[in-house]
Amino acid sequence: LGIAVGLPGFFLNLAIGLYLLWFFTECVRDSANGGTRAPEAFATTGFGDMWSQEQHIIGCYLILLGPVGFYHAFTQKTDAIFWLLLAYGALFFPMGLLACIMFDSVRGLNPILLVCSIFSTFFQYIGLVLLIVAIILAFSALPDLETNDTEQPQPPKISTLILGGIFFGIAIYFALVVAHLIGRFYWRNQEKLNWEV
User: Fold this and answer.
1) End-to-end Cα, the chain, rounded Å
2) Comparing 14 with 93, which gets the higher pLDDT?
3) What are phi and psi of 31, to 5 degrees?
4) Are 56 and 101 in contact (CB under 8 A)?
5) Residue scoring higher pLDDT (35 or 113)
6) 127 Cβ contact list (under 8 Å, min separation 6)
């Protein structure tokens, strides 16, 4: 939609993206409390509360996955440092994300808390990480829609927009599955984690 509408579409996409980020946190929290269905999509949460939750998630992303993104953006390399940073992010991000959501604070990124939590639920957590990585790899195997052989920018075709919408829907579904898996991990292992939240 943003491609078709221009600048107003950009702000619309931004609002939708922020809402989806908030809804992702609600799905994690609901599953962590034992919920088996998606929570209410149009809750009466105020914008301030939504933005507060989103800041924790954005901070978690920047601290744990930002290094690999910045390294690749500046060096355009996939060398040993890239793979080490990616492994660091993949290992700590699900636990850090869960901790930030459950504590409703960036103090969930305390390294001692993360390391102790991972070791206290080691086999279950490694299984969760591998499952999330498999879901991400399955989604990344979808075909790329932005193949443009010419250097001239061209307006997108209707078929590209439709396929883009379908892939966006698939991406949202995968994200909600990951949110449920992370929340369910907490529900099953909250005694071992002993976070007292």
Assistant:
1) 40
2) 93
3) -65, -35
4) yes
5) 113
6) none
